[in-house]
Specification:
Layout: H1 4-10, E1 21-26, H2 38-41, E2 42-44, E3 51-59, E4 62-71, E5 75-80, H3 86-98, H4 112-115, E6 117-124, E7 130-144, E8 159-165, E9 168-173, E10 185-187, E11 191-193
Antiparallel strand pairs: 1-6, 2-5, 3-4, 5-8, 6-7, 7-8, 7-9, 10-11
Amino acid sequence: MANISSFTNALQGGGARANQFQVTMSGGGATGIQSRGFSFLCRGAQIPALTIGEIAVPYRGRQVFLAGDRTYDAWTVTIMNDRSMGIRGQLESWMNNMQDIGAATTSPSLNANSYYATAIVKQMDRNDATIRTYNLEGVWPTTLDAIDLAFDANDAIEEFGATFRFNWMTIAGGAGASSGGLNINFQVSGSLDGVR
């Protein structure tokens, strides 16, 4: 039988809110982004999905499924554009350093470590305490969305999307959560901290 009190008690702290988050970037090609207020102007982001592939093994007329390789989907953010176009310009420069916009060249000294960055997505509670932290490693931009311009676009701040790829991530709980959060730390033929 439905019990509203049991439901509301299970929904600790009134539930996690999608508008209580913070995204920061550092290192590699993102060095200048942080100084331009990225954590304030990043209007929308995602907690990345986790996917483990499957291996189908035929056995006596049926399939047995085993865990395969971990893959990560592309990660997207929505950014509000300030009048200096600072973050947009920094992202354009980051992409230009990987592949020259005006030519088919890259810097001869370019290697992945020089353009990889780290992105941190924090889920916050309503008191700005961190509930959960997602560290995305080996981040680099693949796509900058167009910015639509129009004479009738009044009372609106420009926004654009950016799509990133990353190589792996780690997850940690936050001390600010009433439940203390959950650290992913378990044994699978040895110790595994975080998610790789």
